[in-house]
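Example (one chain per record):
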Amino acid sequence: MKTKLKSTFNQLIDYGAPILALMVFLGVWEGLAQTGRISRLFFPAPSSILITLWHLVTSGEMVSNLMASLVRIGWGIIFGLVPGVIIGLAMGWSPRIRKFVDPFIAAIHPIPKIAIFPLIMILFGLGEVSKIVAISISTFFPALINSMAGVRQLNPVFFEVAQNYGANRWKTFTHVVFPGSLPMILAGARIAFNMALVITVSVELLTAREGLGVMIWFAWETLRTQDLYATLVVIAALGMALNLLLQKAAVYLTRWNSQTSSENK
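Predicted structure:
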């Protein structure tokens, strides 16, 4: 009973302290804005930001732009993360594939993905395809590198045991390679989702008709800072929701891994 109460108290501290700090910060910000100590043009009061956010949501403007960004993120994840995981597992498992592909990855990965977006637009046009390609590239590399690292950190004894029991390559993959690499794959997925969100907003700032990045750009052009802050709040909430979803997925999918489960609880 004492252990359970102690655990509950620790959870309240873990969650309560950041919330309390945020409330104090917002309260100070609200007070400074309401008393005119800071410029309301550049730092509008949190209450006015919430009111603006409510109007954007109820009018449907925020919802339509959010859905446009989520669709781009979804396609980027499908065409970037999935191939990245597959190729990363192959590179981690096969030294020959790794020696052949690794130099290309080492050369291309450091290039800022937003820097090659003009080239992507030349190759794929100004429509949605170029945006999805840019997002896919940004998610491809974190998924590949983490998946490859996940395979390479596996104990060689696991492969020897599978071989001794007569496991073929498919069974070795399904019973050793993939499940053993899953914690690292999910860690790479978290990075990939974050990168997808960042690149989505970035390409929408450059060339798009709808999306969260477009709302930020229009808000800046017209100095509607309440709209800008409201959009930033939505982006932050979306990032937190995606990370929380992946944390829960990691706990569920890697129940056998006590370290992963304890870190994500």
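Caption: The CA atoms of residues 251 and 263 lie 9 Å apart.
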